[in-house]
Design goal:
With about 400 residues, the chain is α/β, with parallel strands linked by helices. It contains twelve helices and 14 strands. It has two domains: about 190 residues; about 170 residues, Rossmann fold.
């Protein structure tokens, strides 16, 4: 039985945990890996997989050295260093005696994944070198991006500076030269016929003034709109039913339930990479609240996605799609959680809905393209077996 260890540090609430859960479930349920998920904060798992993973996944929550500042001489000196540091559960190979892999063999796994910047401890790396039968396949699983440089960076390797072990960089992306998109094998897909106007909207969002502007516009609009708001959204002034707007608060959906729901809506406002990945793979028009960075790199990443989605759209529809994404994210010069002018988002939504039939058809096509390529989990497993 192949064995995998995933190391995850939860930096932004549910985002990192969501991808960790997605990987653990797919590796165990679809490909027969026994998985140990090392996670510094297991609380999100109660929401994402309330019934547990089953017998093929063990969750380990060692005490992390959280937010440590890298010391002199370390990579990233003076910056925060997210990762697991000793003490881990004490025993050989840094793993507790009660936590051997059910697949047997070395306590270190055959496949080791550092997820989204998490770093595995030095004693675990040292144990990797001592594995009988050779070191494991070591993957640095990075963030999804539509930027062109991802094609060249995917599956490039870098040796450990002291021990010489090869670590391979895995980049999810939108072309056959990347790792693909991580999406559910039980994902509900949008119906083939595109919607001409959005009548059912899903929202999983951070708080921002643009929400109030849209809710006001929808309530006063000519057509009924059903808005499903996730209780996982951090909204101070939650939209309420009024006029032509009917608001329903949804409970936080476990990952499997979200996968089944998302193909039934006309448009989805989502945050987080895992939610975003499921929406686009399902063929549903998305408005993505991307995680902001101080250097505005998130806007570059968002523009790259808009450019890729815009292929096949007419110029006016492509501009409307991009403008809606940028306005929702506060444009380039403003942090998206600081609030903005509600009227600008109304203008962007108007243009978005004028071209919604074309955008909806493109979303169906875009989702079909994603599903026709190998998924991130398929590419990851293929690389593992080719590397053994």
């Amino acid at each position: 039985m192949p064995r995998c260890d995933i190391f995850c540090c939860v930096i932004d609430n549910l985002g990192d945990a969501g991808i960790a859960v997605r990987l653990a479930r797919a590796l165990s349920h679809q490909y027969g890996f026994h998985v140990r998920l090392y996670i510094d904060d297991p609380a999100p798992l109660q929401k994402l997989v309330p019934g547990g993973f089953g017998k093929m996944v063990d969750v380990v929550s060692p005490p992390p050295l959280w937010g440590r500042v890298a010391s002199a001489g370390e990579p990233g000196e003076g910056k925060q260093k997210y990762g697991f540091e000793p003490p881990l559960p004490a025993c050989a190979n840094a793993l507790g005696p009660s936590l051997p892999h059910k697949g047997g063999g070395n306590l270190v796994a055959n496949l080791v994944i550092e997820l989204l910047g998490a770093e595995i401890p030095d004693d675990y790396i040292a144990a990797m070198r001592e594995c009988s039968g050779g070191p494991p396949v070591w993957i640095r699983y990075d963030y999804l991006s539509a930027e062109n440089w991802i094609d060249d960076a995917h599956l490039k390797s870098s040796p450990h500076p002291k021990l010489g072990l090869a670590r391979t960089f895995f980049y999810p992306g939108f072309t056959n030269q990347t790792g693909g998109i991580l999406f559910s094998d039980t994902l509900s897909v949008a119906p083939p016929a595109p919607a001409l106007r959005p009548t059912r909207i899903f929202m999983f969002s951070y708080d921002q003034s643009e929400i109030r502007g849209l809710a006001d516009m929808w309530a006063k609009g000519c057509h009924p709109i059903a808005l499903d708001v996730s209780v996982g959204s951090y909204l101070v002034d939650r939209p309420v039913s009024s006029g032509n707007l009917a608001v329903q608060e949804l409970p936080f959906l476990p990952q499997a339930d979200f996968d089944q729901m998302i193909g039934t809506v006309d448009v989805a406002f989502v945050r987080g990479e895992d939610s975003f990945s499921q929406v686009i793979a399902a063929g549903v028009p998305v408005i993505w609240q991307i995680y902001p960075t101080d250097d505005q790199a998130h806007i570059v990443k968002l523009q790259a996605f808009c450019d890729r989605f815009g292929i096949g759209l007419g110029d006016s529809a492509a501009r409307a799609f991009t403008d809606m994404q940028m306005r929702w994210n506060g444009e380039v010069r403003r942090h998206p959680r600081e609030g903005g002018d509600p009227d600008t988002i109304k203008e962007a939504w108007t243009h978005f809905t004028v071209h919604f039939g074309e955008i909806s058809a493109r979303a169906r096509e875009f989702g079909a393209e994603i599903r026709a390529r190998k998924s991130a989990i398929q590419n990851l497993v293929d690389f593992y077996y080719k590397s053994r």
